[in-house]
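Today's session is about reading a structure prediction critically. Students often jump straight to the picture, but the first step is always the sequence itself: look for stretches that repeat, for charged clusters, for runs of hydrophobic residues. Only then move on to the predicted structure, which in these notes is written as discrete structure tokens rather than atom positions. Here is the chain we will use throughout the hour.
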Amino acid sequence: MNRKIVSYISAFVVSGYVVYLDYLFIQNSVWKISSLLFPSVNRYPIHAFVRYLFYLTGAFVILIYSVYFVFYLYFKGNERVKPNPRFFPKVSIVIPAYNEAMNIERLIESIQYQDYPFECYEIIIVDDGSEDGTGEIAERYDVRVIKHEKTLGKAKSLEDGIKIARGDVVITMDADSYFVDGSSLRNIVENLFSRPFVGISTGVIRIEEIKGSLLEKFQIIEYLHSFEVGRRVQSYLDWLLVVPGAFSAFKGYFIKALPSIPKDTLAEDFELAMVVSRAGLTSSFESNAGVYTEPALSWGDLYRQRIRWYYGGLQVLAKYPDMIMNKKYGEKGVFLFIHMIILEYILPVLQVFGMVAFPSIIILQNFVGLRILDINLPIKVILFVFFLVLSLQYLPGIVMSSVAVAIERGINRAITYIPAVFLYYLIYNPFLSLAKIDGMMRFFRGVVQSW
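Below is the predicted structure for this chain, in token form.
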């Protein structure tokens, strides 16, 4: 049997056992606590309510994250120190910028701080109709500046910058980002040439902690899940699906050969990964190359941003339906269906249904006398068990997330983040599911979504 298939089966068996143990723990704990507080309640309806609620809201979340975590520990433990670079190809760093006067100097200086030969890279700033002097500030440095008289959008700015790029490697970055350390540029370029047929290499995106708010901590945890766990695993398994436009390196011959940068979706980074796959190339992830980016500072801004992401993802899937479950694209075609459709879009619907519709149905039975489900519990018991299950069921996820934070950020940071990790599963994860459902509803209703 194929070794990779065996590894998938093994990871799912281990993760399935984690879910099973979690279920037994919740079922027994909830019943013991409920029997003490509500002595007149029978065991069966409590067990039935716990079972339905757990499998609707928590089981699959824990299962999938456990699978990722098993692979993460394996690949993290087998990573080796990278050898010195074999060569330093010419690199063009293209940065679209709109009203980034507060950030552009920090980014340019972080690039010039890199341990990459100065003569082997160029910086191209595309000032997209800024009104705050972004272009003028950039011109003080030894960089190339393209100025748009009016705002034309990020995709057009990237396109214009790539057209004049002279590098064998083209790196795209957001103007509000900056490098994590002095070796990130060298490492991402090295990764791009680490094995044959790599067309895109991407690195870690980290959230810059500005105020230390709970919302910032949620985004830090989310990005750690997405990049340092998720994309690391996807890259090693060779089915990395999405590369962030905020920090990615492209083979020059590939990106320059494109007639244009995709402009008809809100997820041009996802679409570029699809184009790479169609060209017979693959995407790769470099864990030792990273940039900081600014967090969304309000729940409203965050919600609107996530809707754009999820809406744009559906646009790309609708544009490339032939790649889904297509044997021509190997595992990527399979995981486009499993990961993007089932996990990113169908699972959130199930989770929100379990958190909203399912308990509402049980409560409604008490008022109208219907028996839709064979669960007859007083409202106060339903509410108590509901919140108790939601509080307990994510304990394996909390442990795994805390371990990942400890590995990537240190044990002290992990300890201080435990309350945020707990609330991440209880509040933030359902919040993201709501945004995904909203994005889906807008897409299927034909609502025009813009930036």
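Discussion point for the tutorial: The longest helix spans residues 330-368.
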